[in-house]
Amino acid sequence: MSGTFKGKPTSRRAFLRGGVAAAAGAVAAGAAQAATPDPLITEVQDWAISLGDGVDATPYGLPIEYEADVVRRNVPWLTADPISSINFTPIHALDGTITPQGCAFERHHSGAIDLKKEDYRLMINGLVDTPLVFTYEDLERFPRENHVYFCECAANTGMEWAGAQLNGAQFTHGMIHNMEYTGVSLRTLLEEAGLDAAGDLKDKWVYVEGADASSNGRSIPMAKALGDCLVAFKANGEALRKEHGYPVRLVVPGWEGNMWVKWLRRIEVTDAAVESREETSKYTDTLEDGTSRKWTWVMDAKSVITSPSPQSPIKHGKGPLVITGLAWSGHGAITRVDVSKDGGKTWETARLAKPGEAKALTRFYLDTTWDGEEMLLQSRAMDETGYIQPTKAQLREVRGLNSVYHNNCIQTWWVRPNGEAENVEVS
Amino acid sequence: MSGTFKGKPTSRRAFLRGGVAAAAGAVAAGAAQAATPDPLITEVQDWAISLGDGVDATPYGLPIEYEADVVRRNVPWLTADPISSINFTPIHALDGTITPQGCAFERHHSGAIDLKKEDYRLMINGLVDTPLVFTYEDLERFPRENHVYFCECAANTGMEWAGAQLNGAQFTHGMIHNMEYTGVSLRTLLEEAGLDAAGDLKDKWVYVEGADASSNGRSIPMAKALGDCLVAFKANGEALRKEHGYPVRLVVPGWEGNMWVKWLRRIEVTDAAVESREETSKYTDTLEDGTSRKWTWVMDAKSVITSPSPQSPIKHGKGPLVITGLAWSGHGAITRVDVSKDGGKTWETARLAKPGEAKALTRFYLDTTWDGEEMLLQSRAMDETGYIQPTKAQLREVRGLNSVYHNNCIQTWWVRPNGEAENVEVS
């Protein structure tokens, strides 16, 4: 999959030999050669003659101090206070696809609550044969599944409807994370309570709510509830972190993050949607004529270049360049990502690191050569339904400028000859 | 995949209704019902009427305090000091397959060193056309790959050769982790330096060493070096942690962890193995007759039940029980795992959560019913080569009792009627 470059099989080799990677012989031989001797090669370093940390140093480890910038960040002016607010995953500095829980974005409506496993209860009630209350231990006795899914806040990229505003992929596209969840199928628990009482399931719903003060209630159509939803208690192998809903959250694959209720406390089977605050005045899309789209649950195909980007400028000058980013679709697997360097006039197809992961982040790479000139970088995702990520102009044509949520348009970074990048809008 | 139980489709349902999960109506109705009202359901809780933490609370998060036991642990008496020592992944408390970096086991020979990206250099020398020195930034300019692989120390389970000793899956089998790595193919870098000078590659080797005081040099045959090895700089999406080789480590998929050199500083192409300390007096397998097997790089198929296990007893009494564990093979994908409750007399085939992941941890589940009687739990892995994990007796027959490394035999947990488990040996 790698090791060759489209039409330029020797570009990196020739380039690195020409200057970037030093020829080792020259460096080691020292003064007789043209290259300046590199003391990191020619001199014995402290770390090679002293002892490092022992295995008792960090029972649970954190990133090294040099990575202190790779953290969640919030934007104080976005919300009235940090309790009902959002922070952003540092996607500009990550690679691969898994998001560590420690830097995965948070969105709370009344803060991250402290709930012990022994105090946890999950009620299933409404149109079921037998209303049930589960303890955490009960949940652990049902068959478990493992799946990697992305979770994207519906408001991700929402500030960009009106034009380029937040300068950095972390802030424009960082309300997303991608983790491996372990949990029990929601279907299994609903079947445990029995659905005969609900009658014809076709028009039925479940209403899910959390144990926090906001309760964040949302209605989910029965078909989805009986589909791929998980009642999850682990992420990336370990317990959910407090800020991700410890001890139990709902996972609603491919659907907007607001429905992934944290600190899940109740699931009610109903014969109609509740039309709660979170699905009427919020998380709906107001169109140009003042009416609103609702039930816009599925996150359409979307992508963003994470490097180079405003927080991840090119520092190495012209020559070999790896352009990389993330693509995802709530409808299934990403099948193709194209990258443009000229604001959408021409496109090159990127390499997908691991295609076929449905409703999960897909990493793409374009292994290319930079001529040192300015670029208008864009990426465009396609998914298995044939859907193609739209331009901002196309999206505005359909939805106008009144929306906040569900902005999945193509993002543009203007890379200048000095390698710095800026969030811009192209017509 | 879930929701049914072999031959007992209603066992959990009937069981939970019979006692464990409370019928919600009964609880809510209170005193008129037989069930004791549960104040966690009938009374408003503090967390539902107060605000939690804001999104500025933890720029980089850690596990919640209630999970403080889920950490790496070392065993002081195993080694002379904690600098050249090992600690263990808390696999008994994890689920899914990904290991968070923060609790992934560590093995250092001279401690975890502190090495900044800007001080990082990687030399490729020896039988190459042009010896090269790469900076960290140089490495970022080559095409990258992403793969999930397990890394197992060759000494994992080594204390068990002589008999059941360490009481807990974390200690018997916790020298393993499983992460998504991002890096450059070692082949790409070797080709950058040029291998024409090496002549016939068939009998060539690379010698790899780290920047720490131990240097931990190892010889790798050229076929593997040009195969799936990665020069990795990210794990689970973020920078390698200090204790995992920041900023760069070698990934040698399926092969013993000692070869996964951390703080990788040099790769020398040679025409013979170096026969270093780490591959002669250590990491070889002394047989009954005093001779030693060497070049035993590949980690054979192996598995362990992580729950129930000594550190993860059954607390819920008889009835529905999820038996779960991990299986892996350095030769490829796990194709099947069987579980025995009677010390290997009879076997049931477990469910693989996500089959087909080569050289990565595979999670297995047996969704079963416990009769409350004692069990001798075992798991037995099979891989795509047809290899079957051996019993301890079979392994001893071939290798005797002098070995430390490469013990991949079937593990037994004796589960008593009270749900507690113990590490035992069955004949």
Automatic annotation (TrEMBL), chains A, B:
Keywords: Metal-binding, Molybdenum, Oxidoreductase, Signal. Residues 1-34 form the signal peptide. Its cofactor is Mo-molybdopterin. One of its GO terms (molecular function) is sulfite oxidase activity. The keyword Signal applies. Residues 293-412 form the Moybdenum cofactor oxidoreductase dimerisation domain. Residues 115-274 form the Oxidoreductase molybdopterin-binding domain. GO terms for biological process: sulfur compound metabolic process. InterPro entries: Ig_E-set, MoCF_OxRdtse_dimer, Mopterin_OxRdtase_euk, OxRdtase_Mopterin-bd_dom, OxRdtase_Mopterin-bd_sf, Sulfite_DH_SoxC, TAT_signal. It holds the Pfam family Oxidored_molyb. PANTHER family: SULFITE OXIDASE, MITOCHONDRIAL, SULFITE REDUCTASE. This is TMAO/DMSO reductase. It comes from Roseovarius mucosus.
